[in-house]
């Protein structure tokens, strides 16, 4: 990957986050905030998404050599899925059932599964588990500050949607960005 491609990746993720922020703020579906605040929220959330993406790439590069990395990903996925319900319940100080908080564990998992399925079709079946792990675990970790906005269910949902959108963009575009360019006729491959 060269600097131009890295810049395009960053620009694309930030644009995706800002666009989602503007669309969600303008629609007023989840939170009633101004369009400029939606733009700013999308920009900051996309920066968080980029940091999580680089952290995941580093972790995956280091752990790929370990024999139990795939099993560990499944275990961590299950722990995070359970913890997001318990974490939200405890952060809200709720005394009632955990059932209402289950939705915040399920809908990101569904979107992560769809994105991981698309990635598996693009890159092969072996890409499904790492893609699901990144899309779910890292989105939830990045989302923790947003989940602490107690009493602001709309903003929590909006931040989660922007994170999932940015992470989906990063996951699906990475293969195209790092693919080596084909040499132009008459030029040697070394010159590219």
Structural account:
The chain is mainly α and 192 residues long. The chain has one domain. It has helices spanning 3-27, 35-63, 69-91, 103-123, 128-147, 153-178. Helix 5 runs antiparallel to helix 6.
**Main sheet attributes: strand count, strand direction, barrel closure:** none
Continuous helix count: 6
Count of all domains: 1
What fraction, in percent, of the residue positions are helical?
over 70%
Q: How many strands in all?
A: 0
Cα end-to-end separation: 11 Å
Q: Which band does the percent of strand residues land in?
A: under 5%
Average pLDDT, rounded to a whole number, is 85
Low-confidence stretches: 186-192
**Helix-strand pattern:** HHHHHH
Shape: globular
What is the structural class? mainly alpha
């Amino acid at each position: 990957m060269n600097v131009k491609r890295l810049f395009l990746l960053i620009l694309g993720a930030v644009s995706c986050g800002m666009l989602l922020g503007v669309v969600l703020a303008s629609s007023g579906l989840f939170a009633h905030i101004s369009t400029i605040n939606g733009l700013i929220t999308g920009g900051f959330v996309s920066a968080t998404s980029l940091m999580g993406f680089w952290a995941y790439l580093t972790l995956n590069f280091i752990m790929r050599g370990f024999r139990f990395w795939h099993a560990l990903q499944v275990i961590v996925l299950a722990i995070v899925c359970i913890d997001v319900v318990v974490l939200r319940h405890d952060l809200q100080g709720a005394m009632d059932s955990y059932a209402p908080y289950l939705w915040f564990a399920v809908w990101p998992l569904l979107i992560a599964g769809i994105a991981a399925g698309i990635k598996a079709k693009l890159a092969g079946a072996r890409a499904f588990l790492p893609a699901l792990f990144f899309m779910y675990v890292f989105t939830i970790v990045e989302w923790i500050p947003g989940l602490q906005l107690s009493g602001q269910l709309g903003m929590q949902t909006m931040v989660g949607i922007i994170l999932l959108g940015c992470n989906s963009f990063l996951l699906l575009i990475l293969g195209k960005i790092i693919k080596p360019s084909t040499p132009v006729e008459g030029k040697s491959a070394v010159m590219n």
